[in-house]
Specification:
The complex is a heterodimer. By secondary structure, chain A is mainly α. Chain A has five helices and four strands. In chain A, helix 3 packs across helix 4. The N and C termini of chain A lie far apart (48 Å). The radius of gyration of chain B is 22 Å and the shape is globular. The chains are: A mainly alpha, B mainly alpha. The interface between A and B is large, with 69 and 65 residues.
Chain lengths: 160, 508
């Protein structure tokens, strides 16, 4: 179970870290006014400052349990978390294996795994959809619009 | 009425069997690239360009512009059905279109969107017909300070209307600006915020951010809530298409206002994206149903769609009359003009009357063809909503992944897209508004460039934003829009402090 308070604090911390990164890397680009006008780092620097200050405020509000969502105590229940992971984890694995096996194999495997394993669809139906997906991708992207999708290291090893 | 005579002559060129056939082909291809995220009108137009080398220039431009109309219409389809905007300009359509479709009314949402889009396009073409020469002068009056003022106006009309916590809005907006700054800075040429990652030099594409924030983010919210789409009747409901179109005149004021905003933003190079956001913001503020915006209000679809198409259409005018392409698509088309041996610019209207007026006439006919075709496809697209969620969810993930990859053939974009998905979920969950974030990603860079160029011109004096009537009016209008809600809120607080507490506002 994740409390709303914890989630608020984590989100504010993430935005704050992003702000710090923006500030640090914008200093490399010079800040202020030079012969070339407003320097390249000025705007990112200012936005970084605003992000950090705003994040600190949001973090304080979240920690004290104030703000627009004050009534909601629990953000994510265990069963909700399970459903979220059920969607996100396979998707992340799908993206992770693309460099290895390529878009076509990865998408077919992903569709099959997501449809057949939880037994939501019959295996046959899952197989058909899993086969149709890369085929459609190939026809539309590679043939019609000449956008080549990644084939992956595996295909390269076989010399495609 | 010389223009009218030329236009009639143009119709005799445009309304011929071969040209009508070209329009149908162009529109159908356009709808296809518009519906597929990651592919857009620029892809389609560049692929068709080689085919046009052997054609008459008029036939060629008719084919390409029809494809552009089709893509503009197609871009709204995925926004409404799956919350994935195919083009930047259809982001604002998701705010009310997607809730309406989820509520079991996809046919109504699509028909409303297409109907109002057609109206916007029509107003844009009429404007081109009658004001071609005057409009060219307005566009010429635009320098960096005016550009900045227009972007400022777009931001001002949109920021602070979502009902989110103000500091969360500010943080979302600032993050958007920072993301827009990643990559090569167009003013100084230096590389910014890449943190040593070479692939980031090209910047973070809008498409990558939006597919993650809206597509994947919405998917995560949906599984968390155990989303079940309302049963959509399995019968193809043609009557509902016409009923929705028949209800459009009820939104007459919104239609006219949005068309005016769209035309203005199309001619001044604010562009369709800024136009649709601004139109939505203003409609929310002034509509009687403003409080219900974001929950599937028809007017919330009418406003951005009308403005988007009015701007998209009238944006072709600067390309023809000045030789300044207003968008990527227009730039590719202009390349085509040069290959066909035509010189875009003021002389085009004098030297190539047949071409110019044939094109303008084809805009009328082409848009009618596009609306007819696209309305025919409504039941087909609405039927997509009947596919079970368990099947459609992985397919949406694949569409987002392939879309993010095909923007610039980069694997990093796919990973970033997934990251944006998590951010989208977190933000939505904690009521950080997504709309200001996206708006800043899309036009933040341009606004910053315009501001810095203006500062270069004035050697650092802010006085340049009050230097002439045009820019002063724009800046003052922006400030009014920004401060008006604040003032109203203070007045409301003073009058009755307890009534507003029970009001529930959807964060967009």
């Amino acid at each position: 179970m994740i409390s709303r308070r914890a989630l608020e604090i984590v989100a504010a911390a993430l935005t704050g870290i992003f702000g710090v990164v923006v500030i640090v890397s914008s200093i490399d680009n010079d800040i202020g006014w030079s012969s070339a006008g407003v320097d390249a780092g000025t705007f990112p620097f200012l936005t970084g400052i605003i992000i950090v200050l705003g994040s600190l405020y949001n973090m304080g509000q979240g920690a004290m349990g104030r703000g627009s969502l004050a009534m909601v105590r629990i953000a994510v229940t265990p069963s909700e978390l399970r459903r979220l992971a059920g969607l996100f984890v396979p998707a992340a694995i799908f993206v992770a294996v693309i460099p290895l096996v390529g878009m076509y194999l990865a998408s077919a495997g992903y569709v099959f795994a997501v449809l057949a394993l939880p037994r939501r669809q019959s295996v046959l139906r899952a197989l058909v959809i899993a086969a149709a997906t890369p085929l459609t991708l190939y026809v539309v992207f590679e043939r019609m619009f000449q956008v080549s999708l990644p084939r992956g290291a595996l295909a390269a090893a076989f010399g495609f | 009425m010389e223009n009218l005579q030329s236009l009639l002559h143009g119709f005799t060129i445009a309304v011929t069997v071969p040209h009508l056939t070209l329009m149908v082909i162009g529109v159908l291809l356009g709808i296809l690239v518009g519906v597929l995220p990651g592919l857009g009108a620029p892809n389609g137009v560049s692929l068709l360009l080689p085919l046009t080398f052997g054609m008459q220039p008029v036939s060629a431009i008719i084919l390409l512009s029809s494809m552009y109309w089709g893509a503009l219409f197609g871009g709204s389809v995925t926004s409404i059905l799956f919350n994935i905007p195919g083009e930047p300009s259809s982001v604002a359509t998701t705010f009310d279109g997607y809730p309406m479709a989820r509520d079991g009314r996809p046919t109504t949402a699509l028909a409303t969107a297409f109907g109002s889009a057609a109206f916007g396009a029509l107003v844009g073409v009429i404007l081109i017909t009658f004001l071609a020469s005057w409009v060219a002068q307005v566009a010429l009056a635009f320098g960096p300070p005016e550009y900045f003022a227009v972007y400022f106006l777009a931001f001002a009309s949109f920021v602070g209307m979502g009902g989110a916590a103000p500091i969360k809005t500010v943080v979302a907006l600032a993050i958007g600006f920072a993301i827009a700054a990643i990559g090569i800075d167009t003013v100084s040429g230096s590389v910014r915020l890449t943190m040593g990652i070479d692939e980031l030099v090209k910047g973070v594409s809008f498409v990558v951010a939006v597919m993650g924030l809206f597509g994947i983010g919405e998917l995560l919210i949906a599984v968390e809530e155990e989303f079940q789409a309302r049963a959509v009747s399995s019968r193809v409901d043609w009557k509902e298409v016409f009923r929705a179109l028949g209800r459009l005149p009820q939104h007459g004021i919104a239609l006219l206002r949005s068309a005016a905003i769209g035309c203005w933003m199309g001619i001044t190079p604010g562009g369709p994206t800024a136009a649709s956001f601004m139109s939505y913001g203003i409609a929310k503020r002034f509509s009687r149903n403003g409080a219900r915006f974001g929950t599937g209000e028809a007017e919330g679809i009418v406003a951005p769609e009308t403005a988007d198409h009015a701007a998209g259409t009238s944006a072709l005018l600067p390309m023809l009359s000045l030789g300044i392409p207003g968008s990527a698509t227009a730039a590719v088309m202009m390349g085509g003009l040069m290959i066909w041996g035509l010189n875009p610019g003021p002389m085009l209207f004098v030297d190539q009357k047949d071409f110019v007026w044939g094109l303008i006439a084809s805009m009328y006919v082409g848009n009618i063809v596009a609306v007819a075709l696209v309305l025919l496809t409504v039941p087909v697209f609405a039927a997509l909503m009947r596919i079970p969620f368990a099947v459609i969810a992985p397919l949406i993930v694949i569409i987002c992944v392939v879309g993010a990859y095909s923007v610039s053939n980069s694997y990093l974009d796919v990973v970033l897209m997934l990251g944006f998905g998590v951010v989208g979920y977190l933000f939505k969950k904690l009521h950080y508004p997504l709309a200001p974030l996206v708006l800043a990603i899309v036009i933040g860079d341009k606004a910053e460039d315009a501001f810095r160029q203006a500062m270069l011109m004035s050697k650092g004096s802010l006085g340049i934003f009050f230097a002439n009537r045009l820019v002063t009016t724009l800046v003052l209008a922006g400030m009014t829009l920004l401060l008006l809600p604040l003032a109203l809120q203070i007045v409301r607080l003073l009058r009755k402090s307890d009534e507003a507490a029970g009001e529930k506002v959807r964060i967009i």
